[in-house]
Amino acid sequence: MHYLDVFDFPGGMAHPGHRASIARIVHQLAMSQVGRMVLDELLAVATRTGPRADKLLVEPTSGGMQTAAFQNWDQVGSTVYFSAAHWREPSSVFLHELVHVIDHFEGRPDWARHKVSGEFDEKGEVIGIAIANLYRLEQGQRTVRADHLSPEATKWVPPSDAVPVFAVHHDVFTEYAARKPRLCARLGHYEPPGYPAHLFNPFRAVAVDGPGRHQVMIHYNRSQADALFAPPA
Prior knowledge:
Layout: E1 7-8, H1 16-30, H2 33-49, E2 56-59, E3 66-72, E4 75-81, H3 90-105, H4 109-112, H5 123-138, E5 144-145, E6 156-157, H6 159-167, H7 170-179, H8 181-188, H9 204-207, H10 211-219, H11 222-229
Parallel strand pairs: 1-2, 2-4
Antiparallel strand pairs: 3-4, 5-6
Helix pairs in contact: 1-2, 1-3, 2-3, 2-8, 3-5, 7-8
């Protein structure tokens, strides 16, 4: 099964270039390490859910994007409303949405919608933004996203500044690692460009037994490292 076999384009006749633009983005993701990890997980989940639930609908939209899921007792699916022309970094944005789709395909979007403190809104946004940040760094970007605000208000910070922002959500990463051990193990062993100087890979603390925390202790003393990755009280 090819990555693109998961996708369907119900508006294809009215928007002939839409499928081609998504195909280019999927190819770009497949050529990256982080993008391939997410696509592999998406493919595995779609294959497990059966023939009635193995399609991701990608609908063109006139502006902005949202992810919506529809569910009933024998079918789980997901629709992404997306137009590449509306985004400066369409592959990063689309990857973020695919992380949500994985939860939808498994029939567990409610976990992702649980509220969290701070500016990330929900657990699913913490994970989606963290993975998209790793992809951005792989693509040579020097800043990462540190919130889930509107695109105009988003905080773009150096990766080192984002480490404590994501560390306070250690419990979210721990839960996600329990649900997605294979994906988190692959992400946890990935070292984005510049690591360990900036230490940004929040999956290392939950997916790597020992070395992740040890790597942090090279740059922080033990109490500082423990505080960075300790679950909130």
